[in-house]
Design goal:
heterodimer; A: mainly alpha; Urease accessory protein UreF; 10 helices; 71% helix; globular; B: mainly beta; eleven-stranded mixed beta sheet; seven-stranded mixed beta sheet; 1 helix; 18 strands
Chain lengths: 224, 251
């Protein structure tokens, strides 16, 4: 594997459009559930162990060569909110553009042809990691990290939270992030043997409900 | 060795050919007793009667219901199910396995599941509905009795329609659950959480519309001929009201 390729893919400046999404933080701030660094940390922790674990497992399974069509359908079943399904496909399409330009490959071309409107972002992330020569655990780390870095940087803008405090939240979550990435790789291994039903399906009711409330707002700072 | 109670209850609903539904299988087992009650129209109605409280630690309960083509079944329960810590160490399991054939209809509307302090329960509900079957299913989890910390509860719901998985979600909460379960992304102090699943063949061409039913409840069309109402509330009563209103709004 190439460690530098992992840095390129995980870099917040990788042009995949993630900055336009708050990962549910905007809805939680509006509802008064995120008010500062400590509630941001609990938000991120909850998101990491639910949506983050599912995304990391999807990405890791894609690296291991599990059929992306099946992974995408499994992602749909684990995303009851239509607003979040739309956001995940939009992010998947944007990542696909950047990935094809960065790591041209027949595998990415084929996935883009299958999903002209975009596949779920973690599936695209996994296939991208695969063609970049990365391992399942790398893709899992990327997905798990994105599940918390998005809300953290969005909260800096939404609450004028001190960026140092937001980064400290991410650093405190690092050991749990490593554990979630390991769990995701184990789950991906089970998917290879037993099919996509072996993927985790950890859910967060308020992320789903909040996403639907957020999508109904006439004006918002973030797309999701 | 768990030392708990193993019990399986079974229901089979069949079109009786005279505009009604017969129940060729209606088998309770140990603490899971079944009673046929007065139905409405073509629908057979069954009440799940907990002959004792439970499940307790170490218990493993299974309820299986199958609805055949043209049959209509309504299943309710006489009281809430309370997960309690038991004499036997370890977790309790409660498995629900439901199948609805094309042209069949199942209304699965049990009372709440209450996760009492110190209990540890793993619930898994698997529902297989034919592409032309109909389903209304309600699940409500209440975290703790009044003013009590909840036990450890994990509840997974998997729905297949026409052989495709359209919903797979698991909620884990209580002591020992992965971090953040009571934080702002997951439950944020709400003590009642519920799901209402509606499967209708008509949704294939004309899906349910996304709808916000207040701060704690939304209707969401799934990626298949089904809709999910997801709701959180401070308590069981307010949760039930949200889910009842949601079902009414779906027509």
């Amino acid at each position: 594997m190439s460690r530098a390729a992992l840095l390129v893919l995980a870099d917040g400046r990788f042009p995949a459009g993630g900055h336009a999404h708050s990962g549910g933080a905007e809805a939680a701030v509006k509802a008064g559930r995120i008010t500062g660094a400590s509630s941001l940390e609990e938000f991120c922790r909850g998101r990491l162990h639910t949506a983050g674990l599912v995304s990391a497992s999807l990405a890791a399974a894609a690296v291991l060569g599990v059929n992306p069509m099946e992974l995408d359908a499994a992602a749909d079943a684990r995303t009851p909110s239509p607003a979040l399904r739309v956001a995940a496909r939009k992010l998947g399409r944007q990542l696909m553009r950047a990935a094809r330009a960065t790591w041209p490959s027949v595998e990415l071309d084929a996935l883009a042809r299958e999903f002209p409107k975009g596949a779920h972002q973690p599936v695209v992330l996994g296939v991208t990691a695969r063609v970049a020569g990365l391992d399942a655990v790398d893709a899992a780390h990327c997905a798990a990290y994105e599940s918390v870095s998005g809300p953290a940087s969005a909260t800096v803008r939404l609450l004028s939270l001190d960026p140092f405090d937001a980064t400290a939240v991410l650093a405190r979550l690092a050991p749990e992030l490593d554990r979630v990435a390991d769990q995701a790789v184990e789950a991906a291994g089970r998917v290879v043997d037993h099919g996509v039903d072996a993927l985790p399906s950890a859910s967060a009711p308020l992320l789903e409900i909040g996403a639907e409330l957020h999508a109904a707002w006439p004006v918002r700072l973030f797309a999701s | 060795m768990s030392g708990g109670v193993q019990a399986t209850a079974r229901i089979l609903a069949r079109d009786d050919g005279r505009g009604g539904t017969s129940l060729p299988v209606l088998e309770g087992d140990g603490p899971l007793a079944l009673r046929r009650t007065r139905g409405r129209g073509a629908e057979a109605r069954v009440m799940l009667v907990g002959a004792m409280s439970g499940p307790l630690g170490g218990d493993h309960f299974t309820v299986e219901a199958a609805v055949e083509e043209g049959a209509r079944l309504h299943v309710g329960s006489a009281a809430a199910t309370i997960a309690l810590p038991g004499q036997a160490k370890g977790e309790a399991r409660y498995d629900v396995r439901l199948t609805v054939a094309d042209g069949g209809e199942l209304r699965w509307l049990p009372e709440q599941l209450i996760s009492a302090n110190g209990s540890e329960l793993y619930v898994s509900t698997h529902v297989d509905v034919g592409a032309y079957g109909r389903l209304v299913l309600r699940e409500e989890q209440v975290l703790g009795r009044v003013a009590e910390e909840p036990g450890r509860l994990s509840s997974r719901l998997v729905l297949r329609v026409g052989g495709r998985t359209v919903l797979d979600q698991e909620l884990a909460c209580g002591p020992g659950a992965p971090g953040g379960w009571d934080g702002p992304a997951v439950l944020a102090g709400h003590r009642a959480v519920g799901q209402l699943v509606v499967v209708r063949p008509e949704f294939a061409a004309d899906p349910a519309a996304s709808r916000v039913l207040g701060d704690g409840a939304v209707v969401m069309p799934l990626a298949g001929p089904a809709a999910l109402v997801s709701a959180v509330a401070p308590d069981a009563l307010r949760l039930r009201k949200l889910l009842d209103d949601a079902l009414t709004s779906l027509g």
